[in-house]
Specification:
With 238 residues, this protein is of the alpha/beta class. Helices cover 21% and strands 31% of the residues. The chain has a six-stranded antiparallel β-sheet. The protein has a five-stranded parallel β-sheet with strand order 9-8-7-10-11, sandwiched between helices. The longest helix has 13 residues. The model has no long low-confidence stretch (mean pLDDT 94).
């Protein structure tokens, strides 16, 4: 396993609670849209075993052409040891990234794509939307639906409806409006539904989508292939 040590080159305050840490790109580091990485702080590998409290599984919110690796995360006032250390880091600080992989690249199957996310989960979809804007081949259209109770919506410069690009974006701040809209979107029985958020959020969305007749193979999750069955293999007949 290769560990890439790199430096923070910029810190963007997206909202009062959300920051994006822009990292220098190591020379041979590559990734694609929908990628996640293991993001670690100094000291995580100092002992005989990795200190897991200094490692987090994070989505990369940028594309390679932006020439920085973006890590977008919510840091609340009361937070974990990891977030507390991260909050105190400044430009020039060292961090590590390793085990980078994409579970949710943009599928180009001549279908409509629906991006369903909660809060900062939208960071996973930012590169998919940028990739689509750069090259719309074999994607009919994209619709993004994000729920964020804080009402401090993310990336509104990108997640803005653009009819000429066949892209629509919706933000809602409550569960009722969100799930009503999911049911409405699920009227497209041939669409591809990407879901990013907490495990509880995934389960609730899958339940609604399956209840509307959407098949497991139409639902894309930011999960390792081996863990997909525990989310998607739901027997709705019970």
């Amino acid at each position: 396993m290769q560990i890439y040590w790199t430096k923070i080159n910029k810190i963007i305050e997206e909202t009062p609670e959300v920051k994006t840490y822009m990292l220098d790109c190591p020379e041979d580091f590559t990734w694609e849209e929908g990628s996640h990485t293991h993001f670690a702080l100094v000291g995580f590998n100092a002992g005989d075993k990795p200190n897991r409290s200094l490692i987090r599984h994070m989505s990369i919110s940028t594309l390679p052409h932006e020439q920085s690796i973006g890590i977008t995360t919510r840091i609340r006032e009361q937070c974990s040891e990891f977030k507390t250390i991260l909050r105190d880091l400044e430009v020039g600080g060292d961090v590590a990234i390793f085990k980078t992989h994409s579970n949710v690249p943009l599928k180009r199957q001549d279908k409509n794509v629906y991006l369903l996310s909660s809060g900062v989960g939208l960071a996973t979809f930012r590169p998919l939307v940028l990739d689509y804007f750069n090259r719309a081949d074999n994607v009919n259209q994209i619709h993004s639906l994000n729920i964020d109770s804080t009402k401090d919506f993310l990336f509104t410069d990108i997640f803005e409806s653009a009819p000429d690009k066949k892209f629509t974006s919706q933000f809602v701040d409550n569960r009722k409006d969100y799930y009503d809209e999911v049911k409405s979107l699920a009227a497209d029985k041939d669409g591809l539904f990407y879901v990013v958020g907490s495990d509880e959020f995934l389960v609730q969305n899958i339940d609604v989508l399956r209840g509307q007749g959407i098949k497991p193979e139409q639902i894309m999750l930011d999960k390792h292939e081996r863990s997909l069955p525990e989310f998607l293999a739901v027997d709705l007949s019970v």
